[in-house]
Design goal:
The complex is a heterodimer of chains A (32) and B (489). Helix content of chain A is 91%, strand content 0%. With 32 residues, chain A is an all-alpha fold. The longest helix of chain B is centred in the C-terminal third of the chain and has 39 residues, at 317-355. Classes of the chains: A mainly alpha (32), B mainly alpha (489). The interface between A and B is medium-sized, with 17 and 33 residues.
């Protein structure tokens, strides 16, 4: 139970962080 | 009464809060004398910014709120932490960078620059109300911790907790609270990880399999998934993400470390540590909450007390004492901040600004003290009604949703004071009608959807109004901004 919740959460957390970082970079590039 | 643990917890509070606070204050004073004190901010390195961002927002809601909410929505309660991950991404890539670039000291400053003093005053008043609401939740938190150790009811604990909180504000002072929070949050985090390991070792088979089996047997396997079921995702998860992200992204507590960062790159890099550190905290809290509900002897205590009672009963006394002490310190420090802030707004922004511009420093200090006592006593009375913690927090956060959007639109797109005021009033009116009248039933929608309704009205008035109304271009596109950034270097 703990391992399942832990893995699901870590995947989601890292996914959100990486997506945010990519969006931030894309906006920076668009603005030059 | 668990006298040993109670004595250990109170000793931790006295030694840790009063002792370290006194030591830090002395150190600070010495630095002042030697002239080494550099402008506290604008120089913090990445690890300090990251850890401060992640841990300053860990309070009652992250601990007792998630314990309690996991009772109702299961593992999906972790979304309170995941909402903070999204929040930290928005802060580290958006609002946090902006406040650093503009060299702000407080957030309301920029509201006055964008929309004038009336908007600042309106937001100040509502913010004071929201802070008072959070104060009632923190009072309930102290009540739960005290009730766990003494055997009192939570209501009795909340009254004693309110008195303890007032004593904390008076004795501990406010200056060093940030650093105390940080050190305490590290103790709390490590304690929670150890608690999960010790709990697993006490369960049959030395792992959480028996907990999983008990939910499966009860026909509630969705309680073990962080995605819960469709109803939980639509109501609790959506409301939590919207309320946390769009209110806390303009929270002074989170803006402070960003304002103090060495540069913008430091804030961007801090995201990679801050977001996971805060997010993973919720996993441990959820597992403890789920375990307490699965064990009949603790289930009987109900959602507010089961988890803390289990920690006291099942953990080695040193760990239970350390954990409860760090919980209590975290709650008391938030109590202090949210008791002082509305009292300060009342004294400075209302009394001094509107009624007595010539008020002396001593008069204002006296008024702040009276305010702290008055707000704390009121909080004790409200806390006794014991609303569910996360539901109360989401409701309170929803009041700040229009503030976030008005600010973002004013910075990036268009500045119109009329649209800003209309957005704030419309959102607050709908939030009130949704919460206190039969409006949701009349519309055939859930009464729990006040966060979603507030967001919808905010976006409608703010975007529609900005599209139609005349206004100056967004602040980031103004000459004033360019000269400000050029001067700041």
């Amino acid at each position: 139970m703990f391992v399942d919740i832990f893995i699901d959460s870590v995947v989601l957390i890292l996914g959100i962080t990486a997506a945010g970082w990519l969006i931030g970079r894309a906006i920076d590039r668009l603005r030059g | 009464m668990r006298t040993g643990i109670l004595v250990a917890v109170l000793a931790y509070e006295v030694i840790f809060i009063v002792g370290i606070g006194w030591w830090l204050a002395r150190r600070q004073a010495a630095k002042h004398r030697e002239g080494e004190f550099v402008l506290a901010g604008r120089s913090l390195p990445m690890p300090v910014v990251a850890v401060t961002l992640a841990l300053t927002v860990l309070g009652t809601a992250h601990i007792l709120g998630v314990f309690e909410m996991s009772w109702y929505v299961g593992a999906a309660a972790v979304w309170f932490s995941i909402a903070h991950v999204i929040l930290l991404v928005v802060v580290c890539l958006g609002t946090g960078l902006w406040v650093r670039r503009l060299r702000l000291t407080t957030l309301p400053e920029i509201l006055e620059t964008l929309f004038g003093p009336a908007t600042r005053l309106m937001v100040g008043c509502v913010m004071a109300g929201v802070l008072f609401g959070i104060l009632t939740v923190e009072t309930q938190g102290v009540g739960i911790i005290l009730a766990t150790m003494t055997g009192w009811s939570i209501r009795q604990g909340a009254i004693a907790g309110g008195l303890l909180g007032m004593a904390y504000v008076i004795f501990a002072g406010m200056k060093e609270v940030g650093w105390l929070n940080l050190v305490n949050a590290i103790v709390m985090y490590l304690g929670l990880v150890l608690a999960v390991i010790f709990l697993a070792l006490r369960l049959p088979g030395g792992d959480f399999e028996s907990v999983r089996a008990s939910y499966a047997a009860a026909g509630e396997p969705f309680m073990l998934s962080i995605y819960g079921n469709a109803q939980i995702m639509q109501s609790f998860v959506l409301a939590t993400v919207v309320a946390v992200v769009f209110s806390q992204a303009v929270n002074q507590m989170l803006m402070q470390p960003c304002m103090s960062a060495a540069d913008e790159r430091t804030i961007r890099r801090a995201m990679w540590i801050a977001a996971p550190l805060n997010g993973i905290f919720g996993v441990f809290a959820v597992v403890i909450g789920l375990t307490a509900k699965a064990l009949p002897e603790f289930q009987a205590l109900g959602p507010k007390s089961a988890a803390t009672a289990m920690l006291v009963a099942w953990l080695p006394p040193w760990l239970a004492a350390l954990l409860l002490a760090s919980f209590l310190a975290a709650i008391l420090s938030t109590f202090a901040m949210v008791a002082l802030a509305p009292a300060t707004i009342f004294a400075m922004d209302l009394y001094k600004r509107l009624y007595r511009p010539t008020a002396s420093e001593a008069e204002l200090t006296r008024l702040v003290r009276i305010g702290i006592v008055a707000f704390s006593v009121l909080a004790m009375a409200v806390a006794a009604s014991l609303p569910p913690i996360l539901a109360a927090m989401n409701w309170l956060f929803s009041w700040l949703i229009p503030v976030f959007w008005v600010l973002v639109i004013g910075l990036l797109w268009k500045r119109s004071s009329a649209v800003a005021v209309a957005t704030l009033l419309a959102a607050w009116l709908v939030n009130s009608l949704w919460s206190f009248t039969g409006l949701p039933a009349w519309l055939g929608l859930s009464a729990d959807w006040n966060v979603q309704a507030t967001l919808a009205v905010t976006l409608l008035v703010a975007l529609g109004g900005s599209l139609l109304a005349h206004g100056e271009p967004g602040y980031f596109r103004s000459a004033e901004y360019r000269s400000r950034v050029a001067v700041a270097g």
